[in-house]
Design a protein that fits this description.
It is globular and about 50 Å long. 24% of the residues lie in helices and 28% in strands. Strand 2 and strand 3 (33-35) form a beta hairpin. A 5-stranded mixed β-sheet has the order 4-1-7-5-6. Helix 1 runs parallel beside helix 3. By secondary structure, it is an alpha+beta fold. Bound molecules: zinc ion (ZN).
């Protein structure tokens, strides 16, 4: 009999969306990087719209509760919090579910500041936080043409999880266990 875990799909897709309003006098953080700008993103925690969308995509891929359920904006504990905390929790849940991240693709939509000059830096930083190579993180920045959304930042994220190899805790030795008969 195959173990129940073996019935899990080999890959799972995740999708995340987030938006925040620009407000004067607070720092602008996108993808964990502080960008020079006269306004930042208000709302939940540090307002890092990209990390929030990635977090929700990770959680969604394993059908876990979403970021708002795990870290309620009504809880003062999360006011101004570093969004990396949310990302780490989502990654932990992905690992506990037996998956690892294959790749991420994100679209950022905002009128200003221009993301292009910092895009490589943001990608590298996000990849490090996620524990994947930089070429496994796609990042496109677009302006909100025709959307009348000059005072908002929006992020859409899709990502793919793949089943993690078994027996990672035993650092090798146990991975040689023979398979019996049945094709997998
Ligand atoms: Zn958010």
């Amino acid at each position: 009999m195959p173990k129940t875990n073996d019935l899990r799909p080999n890959t799972r897709i995740g999708y995340g969306f987030d938006s925040h309003e620009f407000r004067p006098g607070i720092p602008l953080k996108i993808g964990g990087i502080t960008l020079p700008h006269d306004k930042g993103l208000g709302g939940h925690s540090d307002g890092d719209v990209l990390l929030h969308a990635i977090t929700d995509a990770l959680l969604g891929a394993i059908a876990a509760p979403d970021i708002g359920a795990l870290f309620p904006p009504s809880d003062p504990k999360w006011k101004g919090a570093d969004s990396v905390i949310f990302l780490r929790e989502a990654l932990k849940r992905v690992r506990d579910a037996g998956y690892r991240l294959a790749n991420v693709d994100a679209s950022l939509i905002l009128a200003a500041p221009k993301i292009g000059p910092r895009a490589a830096e943001i990608r590298t930083h996000v990849a490090e936080m996620l524990g994947v190579a930089a070429d496994c993180v796609g990042l496109k920045a677009k302006t909100p043409e025709g959307l009348n959304l000059e005072n908002a930042a929006i992020a859409h994220v899709v990502l793919l999880l793949e089943k993690a190899p078994r027996a990672t805790k035993a650092a090798g030795k146990r991975t040689t266990k023979k398979k019996r008969g049945r094709a997998v």
